[in-house]
Amino acid sequence: MSKSAATSHLLPVFARADLAFARGEGVWLISTTGERYLDFTSGIAVNALGHCHPHLVAALQEQATQLWHMSNLFKSPDGERLAARLCEQSFADFVFFANSGAEAMECAIKITRKHHAALGHPERYRIITFEGAFHGRTLATLAATGSAKYLDGYGPPMDGFDQVPLGDLDAVKAAIGPGTAGILIEPLQGEGGVRSPPHAFFRALRELCDQHGLLLIFDEVQTGMGRTGALFAHQRIGVTPDVMALAKALGGGFPIGACLATADAAAGMTPGSHGSTFGGNPLAIAAGNAVLDIMLKPGFFERVQQIAILARQKLASVVDRYPQVLAEVRGEGLLIGLKAVVPSTDLVAALREQKLLTVGAGDNVVRLLPPLIVSEAEIDDAVERIERACVALSAAPALQREAGR
Ligand SMILES: *Cc1c(COP(=O)(O)O)cnc(C)c1O
């Protein structure tokens, strides 16, 4: 086959905006043309401490002069420390470090299957998942995601996932069979449109898991690391899983994922049963420890909660005033969804015109994911930009009608 004459050699799997950034400072991104944008994407819930946080910069610079990569053939004192800190803050006894959310989820799926195999029930490998979920793009996590638009063309989806409607407890009960190993859910669906069932649903899932000997798996890749106003979203729900996947904000922008599990859940995992070349790389671990240094300071999450309440109130008032553009504010903490009346892609584009960066999601929702360090003044600034975008979008159809006369 001949070589393509395409102007970009990046595999064209992303619909990229015609905009590039040269650097970032806190909540701000500076484009290659020198324009300042307010970043309410945080690299999709990754840059939780904003861009170039001085403590993270110092930690990575220091680590870069010491050791970049060390294989898991040897001990990792700093990895031990990050794992111990994550366990101390959670239900977990063990942590496996990976490089991404999908890999953390792969490990969660493998731990769940192996748990039952180790108990003498290898036939119990099926995991119940929920409509609207997003668990990643590898073949197993895509099968767990279960969305036709992502699975199309990749052959038969991997076996072992039974998807039911979100919040439908009867459907969950009906799906539990002799082959069921666990139940996998996001405490708050991010990609799916900032949707979550009531807390009672999570409590009911916990009870079902206990009754049937199933593992409860939380995908906190997006909700974890402070996004919803607690280190982990399930802490605000008051329901504890057996296995949990983390990634996105864990390294504050450095790629790292983690799968956390109780000793009981991870009983099947022994030397050789899982692995990763880069997982727990010293640079990633340094970033992870530096993120925790900041997040575990007293008052960090209280401040996130306060700023989130403020943002929520101001956004609710914008929704009231522009019902022709916005229908609803939803979400938890600083994982905020604006359900749009106009196409959500139009809203994201109109906000970008106002130099406010946001992310689309399912269910015609636009996600606002500011860095957790966002100030009150920056929230006010963003709300003004959202208002201006609403004005522009309200005027647009009228203008079009006039032009069409
Ligand atoms: C982003 C995301 C993933 C996948 O993470 P990657 O790092 O892109 O592989 C998995 N689950 C949830 C809930 C996510 O938001």
TrEMBL record:
Residues the entry annotates as binding pyridoxal 5'-phosphate: 101-102, 134, 219-222, 277
Coiled-coil ranges per UniProt: none
Gene Ontology biological-process annotations: L-arginine biosynthetic process
A Pfam family the protein falls into: Aminotran_3
Compartments, as annotated in UniProt: Cytoplasm
InterPro entries: AcOrn/SuccOrn_fam, Aminotrans_3, Aminotrans_3_PPA_site, Class-III_PLP-dep_AT, PyrdxlP-dep_Trfase, PyrdxlP-dep_Trfase_major, PyrdxlP-dep_Trfase_small
Pathway: Amino-acid biosynthesis; L-arginine biosynthesis; N(2)-acetyl-L-ornithine from L-glutamate: step 4/4
Residues annotated as binding N(2)-acetyl-L-ornithine: 137, 276
Keyword field: Amino-acid biosynthesis, Aminotransferase, Arginine biosynthesis, Cytoplasm, Pyridoxal phosphate, Transferase
Reaction it catalyzes: N(2)-acetyl-L-ornithine + 2-oxoglutarate = N-acetyl-L-glutamate 5-semialdehyde + L-glutamate
Record text on cofactor binding: Binds 1 pyridoxal phosphate per subunit.
One term under GO cellular component: cytoplasm
PROSITE patterns xrefs: AA_TRANSFER_CLASS_3
Signal peptide bounds: none
Entry keyword Nuclease: no
Cofactor requirements of the protein: pyridoxal 5'-phosphate
Residue numbers carrying N6-(pyridoxal phosphate)lysine: 248
A Gene Ontology molecular function term of the record: identical protein binding
Protein EC: 2.6.1.11
Extra remark: May also have succinyldiaminopimelate aminotransferase activity, thus carrying out the corresponding step in lysine biosynthesis.
Subunit structure: Homodimer.
Family: Belongs to the class-III pyridoxal-phosphate-dependent aminotransferase family. ArgD subfamily.
Protein name in the entry: Acetylornithine aminotransferase
Taxonomic placement: Bacteria, Pseudomonadati, Pseudomonadota, Alphaproteobacteria, Hyphomicrobiales
Name of the gene encoding the protein in the UniProt record: argD
